């Protein structure tokens, strides 16, 4: 679903609140900080979302999986979770190794995607047990797909050519 511009801010506040909370019902303080939560791209390109995962607990936090929501997926937006494979299986307790910085996921905008703003969220699953699958934290994001400059020029050229042909036909019709 492409969000109208005025809805973007309402959804942003809700997703930001979810992302900033970072606390689950288990009381685990785990955080996701995306380096760019509102990137722009053109059709045919892939955007990689990087950021930091951290926690402030006295226990080892295991990172076992993720889940995501991407509005517009299946309509020429493709989510790629392969960068998450570089995330360590655990983050140490209260120490230097309690933070991970790097790529988390990517989204490919196909050539046929409609320009607009697409909302999504990314949730890290894990916990204090090695096999935990609890939601640890969620980060909201927006992907803005802008028209490709070449496509805009091509459409303008086609429109101008169409207008010229139409105008020529009108002129011929008036002269005859």
Annotation keywords:
9 strands; alpha+beta; four-stranded antiparallel beta sheet; five-stranded mixed beta sheet; 2 helices; 176 residues
| Coarse structural class | alpha+beta
Helix content: 25-40%
Number of helices: 2
Proportion of beta-strand residues: 35-45%
Q: Largest sheet, if any?
A: 5 strands, mixed
Concise overview:
25% of the residues lie in helices and 39% in strands. With 176 residues, it is an alpha+beta fold.
Task: Report on the architecture of this protein.
25% of the residues lie in helices and 39% in strands. The chain is of the alpha+beta class and 176 residues long. The strands form two sheets. Strands 2-9-8-4-6 form a five-stranded mixed sheet. Strand 8 (116-127) and strand 9 (134-145) form a beta hairpin.
Question: What does the secondary structure layout of this molecule look like, with pairings?
Answer:
Blueprint: H1 5-21, E1 30-34, E2 40-41, E3 46-55, E4 61-70, E5 77-80, E6 90-91, E7 99-109, E8 116-127, E9 134-145, H2 149-175
Parallel strand pairs: 2-9
Antiparallel strand pairs: 1-3, 3-7, 4-6, 4-8, 5-7, 8-9
